[in-house]
Design a protein that fits this description.
signal; disordered N terminus; alpha/beta; binds beta-D-galactopyranuronic acid; C4-dicarboxylate ABC transporter
């Protein structure tokens, strides 16, 4: 895929930037060298699992396929990377289903606040028939979802005060991922949502362009947002799965034997990621608390949930065909 990736880069960047990218990334020349996207830094649970995937695939295919994950979103921000993987300019990536919604509407179901009651329930859903249904919807948009990673539960954090009840969100400017459902979610709480790429959040918090954002403990910590936002309130409003997705064109170029090796490696990488997540989330929590972040438990989650009802109503009105999918997820024990 090297040639197509290169064409894409050279078509979209000025010559100086292209020369810079060449010297920084030193793109390998063989067609079987796979380039993968990851937003997180080295050491993050997902990054460790993705590195394992790289090594496992290279080893088990005797070097026929050599995936290499590029951390820290150096290959672009998430919505661009999803597009690039769909077109085959990138070969694989670890994508959150939040920014996937605008491309694969079915996955928007997973961005409905308080849909899942626990991370374990989310795993059970995604590992079963419903997960296959999402994988089919992604495949129609040229993404082959091989396994599902977790990303804990997302909560609000900000620079000003603890959020204990919905009205505490009033007037706060909060960064959200690129999906209108999150804008509606923050609106419903009386805040002002600002969709923005992950990489811009730290500076925006620092300069006061935004007052806060929402994420899980590992991201709050590894992005250094905790250095600026000292109030983390455990609303746990979103539990969103992430895929290890391969570009359809890269997938179709594999032999059946290699497909099976790559799929198994992706499934094993997901197992690893889920294990590492538990431990990592606890460590991140301890680190931010030690750094002076005030973490508060939100007692009355039902009050937040209640504010989300109009979002569900509007969603079902717009996508009547997805109502039974919401019910099926809710009914999964
Ligand atoms: C992280 C997630 C990333 C990205 C990021 C964000 O928790 O793992 O894929 O979606 O949040 O907020 O942009």
């Amino acid at each position: 895929m090297a040639q197509r990736f290169w064409d894409h880069v050279s078509a979209s960047l000025p010559a100086v930037a292209v020369a810079g990218a060449l010297s920084v990334a030193a793109f390998p020349a063989h067609a079987e060298d796979w380039r993968g996207w990851n937003v997180h830094p080295d050491g993050y649970p997902n990054s460790v699992a993705l590195k394992f995937f790289d090594e496992e695939v290279s080893e088990k295919t005797d070097g026929r396929i050599n995936p290499r994950i590029y951390n820290n979103a150096v290959l672009g921000d998430q919505p661009d990377a999803i597009d690039q993987t769909r077109s085959g300019a990138l070969d694989f990536g670890n994508f959150n289903m939040g920014p996937m919604g605008p491309i694969v509407p079915e996955t928007d179901v997973l961005s409905l606040p308080f849909l899942f009651t626990s991370v374990d329930q989310m795993y059970r859903v995604m590992d079963g028939d419903i997960g296959k249904r999402f994988a089919d919807a992604l495949a129609e948009k040229d993404l082959i979802a091989l396994s599902w990673f977790g990303s804990g539960a997302r909560s609000f954090y900000n620079t000003d005060h603890a959020i204990k009840e919905p009205d505490d969100v009033k007037g706060l400017k909060l960064r959200v991922m690129n999906n209108d459902l999150y804008v509606d979610m923050v609106d419903a709480l009386g805040g002002n949502a600002t969709p923005m790429s992950y990489g811009e959040v730290f500076q925006s918090l620092k300069t006061g362009v935004i007052d806060g954002a929402e994420n899980n403990f590992p991201s709050f910590e590894s992005s250094n947002h905790y250095e600026v936002a000292k109030y983390f309130s455990e609303t746990g409003h979103l539990i969103i799965p992430e895929c290890l997705c391969v570009a359809k064109s890269s997938w179709n170029a594999l032999s059946d034997e290699d497909k099976s090796i790559v799929r198994t490696a992706a499934e094993d990488a997901a197992k690893k990621q889920r294990e590492l997540w538990e431990e990592g989330a606890e460590k991140s929590r301890e680190k931010v608390e030690a750094a002076g972040v005030e973490v508060n438990v939100v007692e009355d989650k039902a009050a937040f949930q209640k504010r989300m009802e109009p979002i569900y109503q509007a969603f079902i009105q717009e996508h009547p065909d997805l109502e039974s999918l919401i019910d099926d997820i809710r009914n999964t024990q």
